[in-house]
Amino acid sequence: MSEPIQVERFSGFAEFYDEFMLRLVNYSAWVNYIVDIFNKKKAVVQTILDLACGSGIPTLLFAQKGYQIVGLDISEEMLKVFKDKLVKNSYRISLVHADMRNFAIPEKVDAVVCLYDSMNYLLTLQDLLACFNCVANCLKPNGLFIFDMNTIYCLASFWDNRETPRQIGDIYSLWLNHYDPRSQISTLQLTVFTKDGRLFREIHQERGYEESVIRDALLKANFQGVDFYEHLTFKPINNKTLRMMVVAQK
Q: pTM higher than 0.85 for the full model?
């Protein structure tokens, strides 16, 4: 078998992303949980920025609930998949092609959400703080910033050296993870074999951050209250938490 062609992350996998992820993630539960957070914080939310929106699965679910929403992503390929969906419905969703470390939007919003460990893709504290500053600048006063992150425990103990084959129809994929404790970065080699004979590989990297580091960076970006929850709950995180939800208020 020939060696896979290495491509930019999400450039090859974009067209297959929904087929795989809709079987792995209960997006409706995630979106309902975000709405529960809005209610818990007694926040009046009408406008949302979905940061790193990708192919727009949760973005569309928010739109179905009546929110005015902007989707932002760095991947042109993922945004193309999203745009193709918008042709088939009447939702008013604006899409922005931008880097989450350096962006602005025309009008401030009531809430910013960033889902499915997209924040883990920021591999340095400088990048994390740059993103937080951009988010703060596009939020209205008292606006909410809600995002999830894989924990260091997840990357080091749950993902490390994990090899996971996944097949959807005629598309076969192999997910191979390795964690470096010095950099706190997990590297995923995603190899995909397609029914039309393509063979390619994408390299994805995620970094874990301690709760205190995330909190300090949010405070530096002028956020006020910061809460950490076990994902899909309102329980506090602990040293065995795999995914945490972070809720910060401007």
A: yes
